[in-house]
Structures are given as C-alpha cells and as structure tokens.
Amino acid sequence: MTAAHRPARRSRLHTVIGVLLTAVMLFPVYWMLNVSLTPQQDMRKSPPDLLPLHPTFEGYRAVLDDQLPYLGTSLLIGLGTVALTLVLAAPAGYALAKLRPLGGGALGLFLLIAQMIPGIVMAMGFYGIYLDLGLLNSWWGLIIADSTIAVPFGVMIFTAFMSGIPGELIAASRIDGAGTFRTFWSIVLPVSRNALVTVSLFSFLWAWSDFVFANTLDSGGDWRPITLGIYHYIGNNNQEWNAIMATAVVASLPAAVLLVLAQRYVAAGVTAGAVKD
Amino acid sequence: MTTARVDRRPQRSPVRSGATGAGQRTDAPALRRRQRRRSRLTALAFLVPLAVYLAAFYLYPLYRNLDLSLRDYTVRSFVAGDAPFSGLDNFRTVLDDPTFGPALRHTMVFTFVSIAFQYAAGLALAVFFNRRFRLAGTLRALFLIPWLLPLIVSASTWSWMFNSESGVLNYALQLVGVGPVDWLTSPDWALTSVIVANIWIGVPFNLVILYSGLQNIPGELYEAAALDGANAWQQFWRITFPLLRPVSAITLLLGLVYTLKVFDLIWIMTKGGPGDASSTLATWSYQLGFGTLLPKFGPGAAVGNILILIALAFGLLYIRVQRRQHA
User: What is the least distance, in Å, from the CA of A128 to any CA of chain B?
Assistant: First the structure.
C-alpha cells in the first residue's frame, strides 16, 4: 500500500514546489499587471497594495488614446519582418540542406558568426547607410534592419530541419516531372511546416521587441513602434506608472498569445538554435 | 577541375536515368553532367537572394562601422561625408578614456555573474522539471515568459520594482528590517540591479537547453546507480553533471556571446549610470554615438569594433566546441 502511495504523494509535493517556484519567477509579470490596475493616487502608497483591490482601467484608457498607432506600426513591422525572413531563409535553407552548393560550409559559418555581432554595432552601420539613402524614420527601413536579427537564425533552422526530409520524397517529385522550384514549393515547404512556424514566431517576436534599431533609425517619424512608445512614455511622464505598465501589458500580449498557441515550437526553436542534433 | 571529375562518377540519383528512358542511354553521361550543372545553378539561384542580402545588410553596415572608426567625424562631416582618415586615432582616444577601464570591467562582471547565476538556476530547475509530476509541462512553459517578453517591458517593470521610494523590493526589505536601498540611483547598486534583472531574463533559456540535454541521458543509468545505493546528490554529481558537460559548454558559451552584447536592458534601466557605474562597452558605444547632442561617431564605432573582437573570440571558441562535439 505504501509503495503505491508514496510516488503519488511525492508527485504532489513536487507540484506544490513547482507552483511556488513558478510564482516567484513570474512575480514581476504579476506586479506589472497589478500596477497597471492601480489608481494613480495609490501609486506611491507605502506599503503598496499587493492586490489590485480597487482596480482602475484609466491606464488602459491611456493606452487606447496614446499608443494605438504605435501598436499598429509594430504589427506592420513584425509581419513585414516575418515575410522578408521567410522569403530569404526558406529557399536558402533548402539549398544548403539538399542541393549542396559550393561554398555552403563557408556560408553556414558566416551565418553563425553573424549572430554574434552586437546589435548596437549594426545599428551604427545602418544609421550611416540610412542617412545617405534617406531611409531614416521609415517603417520599411526598420523591417530591413530588424530582419538582420532573424535571417541567420532562420536559415540555420530551415537547414537543420530540411536536412531531415527524406531524399526519396524529393526524388519522387522529380520523377513526376517537377522542377527544383516546384519541388520546393509543393513538397518541401508543406512538409517543413514546423520550421516555418518556429522561424515566423521568433522573427515576429524579435521585430516586435526590437529597441536598438527603433531608437536609432526611427525615433522621429510618424511610424514609430510600441517599444519607443513605452520608452518615450517613461521619459515624458514618470508619474503615471499605471499607464506605463498598462502599455507594457498590452505590448506583452503577442508574446503571451504566441506562447499559448505555439508552446512546443518555442522550445524547439530555442534548442535548435543552440544545439543542433 | 576536380569538380568535373567528380561529375563523371556514377550518379547518386539512379531514378533520373530510369526516368529518361533507355533510348537516350548513349549520351547519358553528357546528359547527367548537364543536369548536374543545372541543379548546381538552381542551388545558386536559391542562395542568391540571401547572398545579396548578407552583402548589403551585414557586410556593408560592418564595413561602414569599420570605416567610421577609422575617420575623424563631426556632425557636419557625417552628413557631408568628407571626414578625413585618421587611422587608429579613435581607438587610441577610446583606450585612453577614463571610462574604458570601468566599462570593460562592468562588461566582464555583468557577463560572468549573469551567466553563472543563470546557469546554476537553469540547471537546478531543469533537474527539478525532469521528474514526472502533475502540471510539470505547463509550469515549464510558464517559465519561458520572462524570456519572451519584450526587453522594454521587463526593463521598465524592474525599474519600477527597484524604485527607491515606492518599489516593491524596498518594501519587502523593510519587512525584514533592512533599510531602503537606492537600487538604480546609487553607484554601489546600479550594476547589481541590472544584473539581477538580466539573470531573471536569461534563466528560461538555460532551463530549456539544459532540460533538452537531460532528456538525452538514458534512465537506466540512474536505475543502475540507485541499485548500487547512490543517493540523489551522488547521482547528480556522478551521472547528470558529467554527461551534461557538452550541453553545458554550449549553453555557457552561447550565454557568454549573447550577454556580452546586452544593451537595451541596461540602457532602459540606468542609461549606464549613475556616472558610469553600470556602463558596459555596449552602452558606452551607444552613449558616444547616439546618447548626446554632440555625437562622437568615430570613438563610438571604435568601441563597437572592440566589442566585436571580444565577441568573436568567444564565438570562435563556441564554434570549435560545437564542431568537436559533432565530429
């Protein structure tokens, strides 16, 4: 009897510890929510209210009034970055995995190194180029800059994934008379759905959260992303923390939604980007 | 010429010749060679967009940055584009600057303390979540949230939690009888504060990679050890830790490369201040280039290029370790 019961009880103990650890880890997230609902006059209260006992939505009203255009811009930039990344990375990944081009190894090494270059250095280089070309403060300029974060990662994920597609599948498509492009489009891409989701997920999140490029290349125009919206909000009024935190909550929504919808792809992406096996 | 000889070898795709039929067998080698060349051209066509993109948006910005660091730029010459070549002057200026020493030291402290704690916490959590219990999967997924949040969100949340008068952290300290700490505004604590926030952000990444490493350790090893009477502690040090070493090496090196270039978090929380109490090479480079009304693009780019060199040194180490593991 004891033998059957002990594992169950130990499992319950583990669940309790796990919930506690998660609560500690997620406390800042909870605090962001709590502050976003706290009325302005209670903000500097000591001790602070640990629960939103008198919730107010004035912070969220401020978001709707001030930040909606920024959110729209971020959505546009995020989706644009995903599209650009997929268009560049998927064919390249296929070529590196299956067509064995000359110089493929060198290209792979370069992509790995590209991910180690600090964003701030890239930002400075882009600033000079965009100044010459008149691309500063444009949303498409930001899409190009943001894609530099995701493209090398994307190529590596696609290469790793497409190497696993059985050669017979591609050969069969050839027998049926499909050219390389046709094979890629109607066989390889549909099979690579998981890789497509992973790469899209990360390129969207990275573009959505980009701050360095936004603040250097797009700080004055009409098309500013939400990260700058929050940043300027903090700079301009460091009193209305409920509005700042409400904006933060809204800016976190894509991450939360994507985590729920695509949980297993997130883990897959993290590990595939780091340990390829 | 070696490629031509390789082409003459029996092809690896026998289906091809089968499909073309027996009638054309006489000029089959020539046909195969032609097809081989065409498939090589197609491979090229699939790669050309990427190559053009990398040249235009990776190599060219890097070249511009290098050029920037070797010229004497002012705001006017930056627009007009006629800055005189000044060799390594910018690098000399930067190395002689009183900020260089502290910035380098802060970069090292920030990086090494961050990844030490991230790794230790990530490993402990990975071992914990490796056991089977209810809700394990859900809780592990929730642990990813800090890593997925936009940095501006985490940074501003931590800023408010660290606030001297109204921050929840000082409130908690007050409960246990410790006086308030000026987390972000005192030179003694600013660096610690940004490190704490950075550890929080990096734990999930370590957890995920180390957890996937643990999954590859065969369970029989633990059963055998348990039969031999090894307790949990011994099992960890004799089995888990040694077998996890390759994955640990990758995790740590990757963390090193990522943490070296952290900029947003520090800039949003402290702007590298007060004074230069929390400035790193990344924030200093930004400070020089964009942080003032009188930008010093040349020195800023020079600091950026020094940072690249450091990142590359660790990056090459990463590549070597990874190569060796796959050999």
Answer: 7
The residue in chain B having the minimum alpha-carbon distance to the alpha carbon of residue A169 is B15
Q: Which helix (H) or strand (E) holds B240?
A: none
Question: Do B269 and B160 contact (CB within 8 A), yes or no?
Answer: no
The beta-carbon neighbor of A271 closest among B209, B268, B319 is B209
Q: CA-to-CA distance for B9 and B144, rounded, in angstroms? A: 51
CB atoms within 10 A of CB B158: 27
Which ipTM value was assigned to this complex? 0.89
> Global pTM?
0.87
pLDDT in tens, B123-158: 999 999 998 888 888 899 899 999 999 999 999 999
CB-based contact, B64 to chain A, within 8 Å:
yes
Model pLDDT for residues A56-113, shown as the tens digit of each residue? 888 899 888 888 899 999 999 999 999 999 999 999 999 999 888 878 888 988 898 8
Contacts of B268 in chain A (CB under 8 A): 211, 231, 234
Q: Which residue, chain included where needed, has tokens 């303390």?
A: B113
Contact B208 A147 (CB under 8 A): no
Measure in Å the smallest separation between the Cα of B272 and chain A Cα atoms: 14
> Helix, strand, coil % (nearest 5) of chain A?
80, 0, 20
